[in-house]
Amino acid sequence: MSEKKQKQRQANGFTLIELLVVISIIVLLLGILVPGMRAFKRTADNLKQKSRFHSMEVGLELYYKDFLKYPESKALPAGSTTGVVNGAHHLAEALFGRDMKGFDYKSNWYALTDSLIPDIYANDNNSTVQTDIDASAARRKGPYVDLKDVGAFRLNAGIGVPWYPGSGIAVSTETGGTIYAGGDDYPSPVISDIFYKKIIKVANLETGVEQGFRVGTPVLYFKANTDEKQSRGYDADGTPITDYRHLIYNYEDNEAMFGLPQVTGPETDDEKNHHYRKGYNSNTGDELFYDDITNEKVEQYARPVNARSFLLISAGRDGIYGTDDDVTNFGK
Length: 332
Known about the structure:
Elements: H1 3-12, H2 16-67, H3 87-96, H4 111-114, H5 130-139, E1 151-153, E2 168-171, E3 178-182, E4 190-192, E5 198-203, E6 210-215, E7 220-223, H6 255-258, H7 285-293, E8 310-314, E9 327-328
Antiparallel strand pairs: 1-4, 2-3, 5-6, 7-8, 8-9
């Protein structure tokens, strides 16, 4: 090529064909890389949640070492549709205490009665009697997890509106029960998963200073009833078991949670509601729950995974319990 033509080409820049080729290559690379990057982020987030679960598992084992049993997960009060304390609440209390100062074994942790009997969980918020404060401090164990490894907040919502951190109660649209959140003096926190759906400004449970919190969906906790032998909701002859207390894991321990709307807001599309909710689609939530926790490798008996310890469940990226992206400590 002559020197004159080469200078002319340099002056004219890229041709249209050359630009189109470059743009096509960039679009092609983005088409290849973007889905891979999204899949990488999903994998990384799942691993982060599993790491959080590992911290909680270690904390629960330390709790077991101190008390020779795992924390209870049963809903309180039993058989009631009002003032429900769930397994998710028991997990938070056992690991770091409702006031972040450790677990007090004398607490029955039915938060609605604490204001009437403050010495059950005496601390500098709900008791002014120094002997009560000192007695509770001496009983405390833990915290069993580093607070930087968990996010703690209180539920607060009405029927048909998204729940969020704060004081008050959350109402389950499924059971009609009120999930107690506690006031500033009697907090009732749950632990958030890492799939953050919303940023909310709320008063810090420890300092009272308002600050921004990134919140996800509550981590659910179910304790195994080792006196029972069966996981699925059916007798040997195929008759459905309606009393979940006769199963290794009791669906009702967190049933009210399954009736809550998503953290981002209520959904009219049934597919976007919690799949473990009773009445979900053509199935019932309890059947799906027991299907998911049953060990498929044991064909002769309906045995759950982790049959002698506990289950932890995160709703995953979509914030819906019972879907394929749930993160658990039992391999789902």
